[in-house]
Amino acid sequence: MVKQYAAEFSGVELIAKGRGTKPAWLVTHRPFWAVASWGNPTYPSFGATDKTLQQALAASVWKKLPAQIKMTMAGHIHLAQQMDLDNGRPTQLVFGNGGTSRDPSLKQADGSLHPKVGTIITNLGGDTGTFFTSYDFSFGIITPKTGAWAVDFHGKAGNVLHSASVAN
């Protein structure tokens, strides 16, 4: 699968580079960079997703997403998530947020991130200070602004759960 995805990402890179400096989003089913949980809530397991996509991107022609791609959006895991990344990588948004109580929370009872989750985010090159996640049913609205996109995650009652700004 790595070889197949690498070829596809090389095509994405060529298309994005052909756009000049126009910003773009990349929408995929699986997120490149996200944190998921599974198992028993008393003894949860945590891990980064999707290592296959990360390996394929590293094996593609330019070894990374082009600078024109400012944001990646995906679903697949049943939560909402935003992760800002280092090394010029775009912000990763996950809109798989149909709500789930099957998986253990990435947060502790006091609302802080589980220490293992913080380590995974740091190892991915993510910013734990701006990281957002929610297992509640929610939806996202992305609104163009001058020089940025406003990203708002809303709860089922319409209340804003999290807001972020992604430069374009």
Polypeptide structure, described:
The chain has 168 residues and is of the alpha+beta class. It has one domain: Purple Acid Phosphatase, chain A, domain 2, CATH 3.60.21. It contains three helices and ten strands. Strand 8 and strand 9 form a beta hairpin. The radius of gyration is 16 Å and the shape is globular. The model has no long low-confidence stretch (mean pLDDT 89).
Furnish the topology, listing elements before pairings.
Elements: H1 2-18, E1 24-27, E2 34-39, E3 44-49, H2 51-59, E4 69-74, E5 80-83, E6 91-95, H3 115-124, E7 132-134, E8 138-145, E9 148-155, E10 160-167
Helix pairs in contact: 1-2
Q: Which H/E pattern describes the elements?
A: HEEEHEEEHEEEE
Question: Can you name the CATH architecture?
Answer: 4-Layer Sandwich
Shape verdict: globular
The gyration radius over C-alpha positions equals 16 Å
What's the CATH H-level superfamily name?
Answer: Metallo-dependent phosphatases
Mean pLDDT: 89
CATH topology, by name, is Purple Acid Phosphatase, chain A, domain 2
Could you describe the largest sheet, including whether it forms a barrel? 5 strands, mixed
Strand order of the largest sheet: 1-4-6-5-7
The number of helical runs is: 3
Q: Which parts are unreliable, with pLDDT below 50 for 5 consecutive residues or more?
A: none
Instruction: Estimate nothing, just give the exact number of structural domains.
Output: 1
Estimate what percentage of residues fall within beta strands: 25-35%
Work out the number of β strands: 10
- Helix and strand content put the structural class at alpha+beta
- Helix share, percent: 10-25%
